[in-house]
Design goal:
The chain is mainly β. It has 2 domains: about 140 residues, Immunoglobulins (Immunoglobulin-like, Sandwich); about 100 residues, Immunoglobulins (Immunoglobulin-like), CATH 2.60.40.10. Helix content is about 0%, strand content about 60%. The protein is built from no helices and 21 strands. A hairpin with a 4-residue loop joins strand 17 and strand 18.
């Protein structure tokens, strides 16, 4: 007889688009992110949550710290020196939205202790109180009953004093594989503020002719963190000849873009 094991899972999504309006699964949130100056006392603001669907939705609201893995996966993190999560107060803390209605969620940030010249951040996490149940089996043949709920995280960034927005490209290389080649790029945020970085690349032959070009993807890179990109190159590249590779990254927060060029032979 199989023994049932109850488990729960939370699927979190961060609204990372730089727009004034974000939407997910019938729920829209405006704004999709907030940037605040902490030098002006106790900052406050509000979000407008709209239920665009045909069924009522219930959410629990709390503050959560977050980050990203080097490959860009969203991570729920414990509080650290950059966290705002224990300073943010939301009102209300739970809400029920009827179909085609909206509600305002207000917040205030109450700092504790001396603030350093840096950026702090957290997210308004909206955890759905509606769960979906699914069943599966583990390696031992036991039946698992999973209750899955979704969560939306809206980032709040707060700066205090002088914040440095900068990055550098640490790695730029081309690796040949069975499917052709992969461009590997590592971007290091060596500043004190977050970046929403966008990148482009180009690969040229020794005579300067263009062999491949494209985008390196868009991504948040938090202070002191790395972001690793691996871009498959669709074009067939010649072997055993010198190639020139250039990568360029920019961010709305940076005054100038950064670039790196290398010569390779694969």
């Amino acid at each position: 007889m199989f023994r049932k094991i109850l488990a729960s899972a939370l699927i979190a999504t961060l609204l990372v688009l730089f727009s004034a309006f974000g939407a997910l699964a019938g729920i829209s949130i405006a704004p999709a992110f907030v940037e605040i100056d902490m030098s002006k006392g106790q900052p406050s603001g509000q979000f407008v949550i709209t239920n665009n669907g045909d069924e009522p939705e219930r959410y629990r609201i709390k503050a959560a710290h977050f980050g990203f893995s080097p490959t860009g996966n969203l991570l729920s993190l414990p509080e650290d020196k950059n966290s705002l999560s224990s300073w943010i107060k939301f009102n209300p803390k739970e809400l029920t939205l009827a179909p085609k209605t909206n509600q305002r969620v207000r917040f205030v940030i109450v700092p504790k202790g001396k603030l350093e010249d840096q950026e702090y951040w957290a997210a308004m996490e909206m955890e759905s109180l509606k769960t979906n149940t699914t069943r599966t089996k583990d390696g031992a043949g036991r039946t698992l009953k999973l209750e899955v709920s979704s969560s939306v995280m809206v980032p709040i960034f707060a700066r205090h004093g002088e914040v440095a927005y900068q990055c550098q490209i640490d790695e730029l290389q081309l690796v040949r594989n069975d499917k052709g080649a992969t461009l590997q790029v590592t971007v290091n945020n060596n500043g004190t503020g977050h970046l929403y970085a966008t990148g482009t690349f180009e690969i040229r032959a020794g005579d300067g002719s263009m062999l491949s070009e494209g985008n390196l993807g868009n991504s948040y890179i938090m202070p002191g963190n790395l972001r690793k990109f691996a871009i498959p190159i669709e074009e067939k590249l010649p072997g055993q000849v010198p190639l020139s590779i250039k990568a360029v990254y920019s961010a709305p927060q940076m005054k100038e873009s950064v670039e790196k060029s290398v010569q390779v032979t694969i």
